[in-house]
From TrEMBL, chains A, B:
This is D-lactate dehydrogenase (cytochrome). SUPFAM superfamilies: FAD-binding/transporter-associated domain-like (SSF56176), FAD-linked oxidases, C-terminal domain (SSF55103). It comes from Effusibacillus dendaii. GO terms for molecular function: D-lactate dehydrogenase (cytochrome) activity; D-lactate dehydrogenase (NAD+) activity; FAD binding. Pfam families: FAD-oxidase_C, FAD_binding_4. InterPro entries: FAD-bd_oxidored_4_C (IPR004113), FAD-bd_PCMH (IPR016166), FAD-bd_PCMH-like_sf (IPR036318), FAD-bd_PCMH_sub2 (IPR016169), FAD-linked_Oxase-like_C (IPR016164), Oxid_FAD_bind_N (IPR006094), Vanillyl_alc_oxidase_C-sub2 (IPR016171). GO terms for biological process: lactate catabolic process. Belongs to the FAD-binding oxidoreductase/transferase type 4 family. Its cofactor is FAD. It is an enzyme of class 1 (oxidoreductase).
Amino acid sequence: MDLLKELRGFLPDDQVTVNQTVLEQHSRDESYHAPHLPDVVVFPKSREDVSKVLQFANKHQIPVVPFGVGSSLEGHVIPYRGGITLDFQLMNRILEIRPRDMLVRVQPGVLRTQLNKELSKHGLFFSVDPGADATLGGMAATNASGTTAVRYGVMRDQVRDLEVVLADGRIIHTGGLSAKSSSGYNLTGLFVGSEGTLGVFTELTLRVYGIPEATMAARATFPSVKNAVDAAVAIISTGIPVARIELVDAISIKQVNRFSGTDYPEAPTLFLEFHGNEPGLKQDVESATELAMQEGCQGFQFETDSKARSQLWEARHNLAYAFIKASPGKKLMSTDVVVPLTELTGAIEHARQMLDEYGIEGAVLGHVGDGNYHAVLMTDPNNPDDVKRTEHVNASIVEYALSRGGTCTGEHGVGVGKMKYQRQEHGDALDLMAAIKKSFDPNGILNPGKLIPAI
Amino acid sequence: MDLLKELRGFLPDDQVTVNQTVLEQHSRDESYHAPHLPDVVVFPKSREDVSKVLQFANKHQIPVVPFGVGSSLEGHVIPYRGGITLDFQLMNRILEIRPRDMLVRVQPGVLRTQLNKELSKHGLFFSVDPGADATLGGMAATNASGTTAVRYGVMRDQVRDLEVVLADGRIIHTGGLSAKSSSGYNLTGLFVGSEGTLGVFTELTLRVYGIPEATMAARATFPSVKNAVDAAVAIISTGIPVARIELVDAISIKQVNRFSGTDYPEAPTLFLEFHGNEPGLKQDVESATELAMQEGCQGFQFETDSKARSQLWEARHNLAYAFIKASPGKKLMSTDVVVPLTELTGAIEHARQMLDEYGIEGAVLGHVGDGNYHAVLMTDPNNPDDVKRTEHVNASIVEYALSRGGTCTGEHGVGVGKMKYQRQEHGDALDLMAAIKKSFDPNGILNPGKLIPAI
């Protein structure tokens, strides 16, 4: 079948392309996973465009892969079975801001920074911050989170409603404008994190927050990673409502300084942020400082002005890119496990041991307030031995987490990279997931080969 | 088939009964919905008991209805098709408290107050507080919330893992101990709020919180319901993190005073609570007071000692019972809509108009910080005209909410009472819900006739 011709039969010519460069741009994400070309890329402009494409694809059993900016880390957007990639860059409008309802309605191609720029005019912000300037559609598809989840929750906590085009082209809404609901099954939560395998998002209604009265950022350095993690666990367990609490190990600080031009002390560090009213925040900072000191904190450096604060988080966000830049020819493999807080110190020590044992120059960092950390492993995709060795370390870290009630992925998602752990993590529950997939997408056209392993 | 004999074939005699009084206790909930007897009541002691009963019931296509304490408000536990009621009062153990992980593992028959009593020994509390001393299993089944949801979220936000027995007797876990996960579809969120129609809970792992350093409760009286609601909306929109903010109208205050022996001014009132560190809380209280004064607040009365605070919330919790006691022979019909905050004042004014127009002596109260309110309508179940009139008002309130992006039920759930609004609220998404039901429970034995209307 001539896909280009068929699709141009019901879509304007400039919304459908088989240009080689464009196909290549849609053949990969930011991870080490092998690229694969789609047969065609479509740029929908409306829910109706998406619905028409899906009706067509469903009839002819052609795979369809939704695509934001390709910042996924487990191969989610790589079209391993070819077919149609739906790129949402033309559906990037902020449709409605309702400041008093603390809600915003957006198209899936809206970027995180684009949304926050607009929201700031109303004294509001969108809380989820995965580092990458991802699209809101992509963030909902992977249930992204990041540095602020410890205070404001993950993507799933922010989505009130999704407009979804189903495999057969039907358009549904999963929720509404209510702050809560006990009506019907929770389809919103089911679609968030479904990685394009159950339906394609064409609109999102999201919860937003008022910009806090006061914000304070800080860096706390420790003699060891263990001390830093123990301090983080103490701060969280005490109930201090930190807005961010990030572990950055010494190797990562080196990369930060090199890439971002900072001169932070090259020691295990917690990056912290506090939000609140002035007096409450002051008290929170005091309590946190005290707990950090009890863990041997060697310096608690406050970033009071907004420029230094921005630089701090900018540096943290750019860490993955810093590693990528520092390792030419290599690609990023990142673990993303979560463990209960009481298991966190042991888990991070185990990860460090594995890295040392296998001679991998990687970093350990992450969202320790949630028990979520990343071992950043650079690997050479053209060197099978290197990939195998790195994958072995990756697997060992995942096994450690799963054996302690943890999860194989806290925020990156399953994609193709974490599929092999799904049975071990979910047991027979995986069969229920497969049954849902089968019932929502009987022809298996929606991002096939992702999330749910062939059973 | 002799159900008693068959069930006693694989369960101890004292765990299975057809005693008439026991059957009657399991024929109703706290609502106006007509009672119906189960054929037999089973008291499981373990997941294995539940699994055996479900395997048996599935084989013989016998309905199974899980039962906590019967405090549901939409007929959820009424076995309209007879069959087996599973009463969880013997599965009422707190299995594990992990204070540093802020987690607790419980059996489904554990009561809310029982859990909080135990947690308080560790400086912890469980946040969800629906008023009734319900079981945790029942609260998860209906996605209950209540007064503290505005700060801590609803039941769905607290559940980390469910052990669920499926219709065919298989036992699965929906989650784990992680604070967040992007692994697989979100089955935990799907089962929470499924009202016993997708599986039966045998264990719950729940998030708990540290008891806040400082707590302050207050009553603020206003010249009108509109002023009270506008003040609440202003407080929420400003981002003051109130822990509770409840509207209690003048009629309800009268009932409170009569039933609970208080002497609160009989005017539209907000009941508030603040949690935080001392200085932060003080600032929050000041900001809230200022906003209330701008809406004509006639008195901001603080309940500083813990006894007066307990009395305040006790009085609020007993409101439903106060109305029931004040109307002998009548039963409770409660609306439970949620609307976006900007629609709340209009919605409550509309509800008040409907009550006046139809001469129904009812109250309007609720969790206004979430946009969730209840019109409490007492009706005589033996007077069809009375029921019809009350149902008409109920329907009109629901229609108003749905037409403004709201939901027909914020926390009570669908049961049988809100089934008729499911198509209107969910549109084609209801077909997806029905498909999930069909795939999880192909023989339709799990709480049949609830939540999902026959399609």
